[in-house]
Amino acid sequence: xxxxxxxxxxxxxxxxxxxxxxxxxxxxxxxxxxxxxxxxxxxxxxxxxxxxxxxxxxxxxxxxxxxxxxxxxxxxxxxxxxxxxxxxxxxxxxxxxxxxxxxxxxxxxxxxxxxxxxxxxxxxxxxxxxxxxxxxxxxxxxxxxxxxxxxxxxxxxxxxxxxxxxxxxxxxxxxxxxxxxxxxxxxxxxxxxxxxxxxxxxxxxxxxxxxxxxxxxxxxxxxxxxxxxxxxxxxxxxxxxxxxxxxxxxxxxxxxxxxxxxxxxxxxxxxxxxxxxxxxxxxxxxxxxxxxxxxxxxxxxxxxxxxxxxxxxxxxxxxxxxxxxxxxxxxxxxxxxxxxxxxxxxxxxxxxxxxxxxxxxxxxxxxxxxxxxxxxxxxxxxxxxxxxxxxxxxxxxxx
Length: 399
Hints:
Strand order of the largest sheet: 2-1-4-5-6-7
Largest sheet: 6 strands, antiparallel
Shape: globular
Distance between the termini: 49 Å
CATH topology: Rossmann fold
Low-confidence stretches: 3-20
CATH class: Alpha Beta
Order of helices and strands: EEEHEEEEEHHHEHHHEEHEHEEE
Radius of gyration: 22 Å
Structural class: alpha/beta
Strand content: 15-25%
Helix content: 25-40%
Number of strands: 15
Number of domains: 1
CATH superfamily: P-loop containing nucleotide triphosphate hydrolases
Oligomer: single chain
């Protein structure tokens, strides 16, 4: 397994960082899930959203998550998000406060009967952008949802998506490379399934896969190395008194392991040659059996010397929160603190861990959006957070 990102030929220092201290001051959602139209005015404090089940708390977090590339925290198709009974489209608009001044972001799909085939639009300060990948240049985002409590038990693809979102915090272009690799991967699989073995056609696709694949693996290693450093720093500071258990992280992937000891250009050439040599094997399997799309994130509970998948549900959640907080500290140190979306985060944490989580969010000056059905679970935040009750598609400010 690959463990660190110290021996890399790909340099992520050229990635353009977002401005430090970015916060949302205004959010408007239109025809989105349960909301016909709703608006939130915010300051730099964390945000607490409480209300009954089905009130629309998670819907709002999903709307926020679409201010980043991808399909958001639920992974829903874009046409499925439109409000039932509405015109078929939807929109999310936000104003960011940055060091350079206010910045307006917007995304959505136009209304109409053919919404299922409509492209998701993105606008920055009123000007149409090339696509959702642009959003990562302005706002970094992480989320935890109840469904992710099983992250260590589900398929490796779920852990890869989680890891790649962490990587995008440091390297916004990572998502673009992942998408380009996956397009080439799908095309190769299609050609092999149709027994189209033209060496020039396949060779061109495999060359793209090798280039993007090694860049993806290198960026993952770089992020993992920095993340492990953040976990080590917390261990040195808090020691045995740390509220969230120390996680050991490793990558289980061929390219990542090769990058530990070989130059990226050599790993790229080896991967390209391997793809050419395994065409018949992969055609028989119906899929490409090697590459960064097979990498897994391995996590261990250090104190108990146990794989995360074998830990209790509570331990797994605590490990996951610890990883996310370490990543937030790492991004904060790089001047790009992320927006955190934490759905039902406090429900299964004891009082000590709740207080530690809230203190960490406040101390790092993170704008976190937290949901729950019980407002009492957030009492320790007091006026350090901006609190709303969600009811009938509206927001009642509580402080």
